[in-house]
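Appendix B: a complete holo record

For completeness, this appendix reproduces one full record from the ligand-bound portion of the collection. The bound molecule is flavin-adenine dinucleotide. The inputs are the chain sequence and the ligand SMILES; the output is the full three-dimensional arrangement of the complex, encoded as structure tokens. No fields have been trimmed.
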Amino acid sequence: MNDTQASERPGVDVDVDVIVIGGGVNGSGVARDCTQRGLSVAVFERNDIAFGASGNNSGMIHGGPRYLTYDPDVTYSSCLDSGHIQRIAPHLLFRIPFLMPVHRDRRGAKLALTLLDAFFDLYDKYQPLKRGKPHAVLTADQLQQLEPGLAGMTVGGVSFDEWGIDGVRLCVGNLVDAAENGARVHIHSTVTDILRHDDGAVRGVRYRDLLTGESGSCTAKLVVNATGAWAPLTATLGGLLPEQARIRPGKGIHVFFDRRLTNYAIAVRAIDGRQVFLEPWQNMSVIGTTDTDYYGDLDDVVATTAEVRYLVQAVARVFPAILEARPIGTWAGVRPTLYDWGKSPDGLSREHQVVDHAAHGAPGLYSMIGGKLASYRLFSEEMTDVLARRMGIAQASRTHVTPLPGGEELIDPISLAEDAGIEPIAGARLEYRHGARATRIVERMARNPREAAVVCPCEPVLEAEVRYVVAHEWAQTVDDVSRRTRLGVGSCGGMRCAARCGAIVAEMTGRSPLDGRRMALDFLESAARRRLSVVGPVQAQQEALSLAALRSQLGSTRAIERPTGDLGPTGLGPRAAEPRAAEASAALPALDPTRGVPA
Ligand SMILES: Cc1cc2nc3c(=O)[nH]c(=O)nc-3n(C[C@H](O)[C@H](O)[C@H](O)COP(=O)(O)OP(=O)(O)OC[C@H]3O[C@@H](n4cnc5c(N)ncnc54)[C@H](O)[C@@H]3O)c2cc1C
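The structure of the chain with flavin-adenine dinucleotide bound, as generated:
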């Protein structure tokens, strides 16, 4: 079977031209680009949009200064694509000015500062591509003035400029755009088989809706495996070997704290010399990240106490106030890095690759391997170029110039808040997440003033936004609403908002109030698990008690794991509990064949 035969079968009707498996940033990006070039598309996402790496990363659309030393092409393409992403989604950006102190106790500290200066001279050449300012060399006094909380004697340091983005909103924007151009988007629908003709050519997928339990199939000319760290596993659903879509999965975690501790992000070296950071993000502070080989369950990636200690130890050496700060949660994801043997995870290439499985006897099936958030649009364009060529479409990509939904113009959040009669902070949050489309949410409130009610006081999230993301962004559960709006992410951990949100989601999706309460409990339990590695045993026990009380009201028998056993000093103040359930499940072989452990 040659390439042409695979995509052109006279007399064979298909449901869509292209099926995209995976609703992360690469799958969403391909779906958007395909629809803009006139291809019909169906997307299947097993969990929720941005459930994987795309919703659990550091959010930097940077060139990655450290990649300059071994992967300058990645720095170039990421900076270039960062500029494009900034143009199409201006509302989703936030500036991250970094400080990198050089401590006197470092061997050859003065020389190190001179070398850093020279290194950042080189990085500055890429900065105009992504609207970054050039670096500056700072004296010890200047560093101290900018961040008085910095500890230790320094010989000075450098500043450099980066941009961040909300990865979840980026994925949602791509998929909303794709859907408005005709794509069918199936969330909570796992692909269980990739279907092939007798001659090996791909013919579609079989899927199961994990909320309703219903199964179905969808036929297509071409299928894209955009499942990130799941890619090897997904390849096996089409009868291929996992090695034919091989990645090297690298786990990374972040810890977040209940307030902003600094004005600048601070880059510090961890005990093993790796670079980690402390960064202000919206109304909180974040520390990240680790990079370790991962062999556990990809659908259940949770930070461990050991990983938290590693990060806190590194940051505390330079910014001791972190030890007094209140950690309120963690997030964790798995990088789908290009496979390589014998390198440390940190040293792996961040390049990306399109794998054409025609070489493996499955024409029409492709896997997207590797990549970065910062270059997702370019990767998606390259993938779509291949698909378009196969379909005989000559049109070039325009995703670098057409704005994402909400990115058409920047609106003033203060006027938005005044028009809506809401707090300025609520207006700013709406504008950040939805850009110009925030006016649609305000229009909802004008039609129904009760929707101006605050559902999540920590953030704050309004009822109108909850209803909007259910109606227009495929949110089906409290967890989905939280991912899109940050509901329940703040210091109360969802205790004040999950129940109300569950009631709204249940009412809007035709489910019972009891279902709404169950959804809320599911959300609270999963948030509590993600907190276990950072809260002390007293808080963990109190949370376990409150959740048990809620569970008994609902007649549910599920339980979150209580902290037990070996509780050592964490560097976080009180002794924290190990997320044993997560580790236990990671150690077990996956039972569901579509769930699982990467090759
Ligand atoms: C800790 C961490 C920090 C990072 N920091 C940065 C950064 O600062 N800057 C940067 O540029 N990059 C960063 N990255 C890398 C970046 O996040 C990833 O390269 C990118 O998000 C990968 O996107 P993806 O769409 O390929 O995969 P994912 O986002 O993982 O999406 C794959 C999706 O496939 C779905 N899926 C799996 N199996 C099936 C199935 N059978 N059926 C249907 N759906 C399925 C999953 O549920 C998942 O949602 C970081 C990554 C991590 C983990």
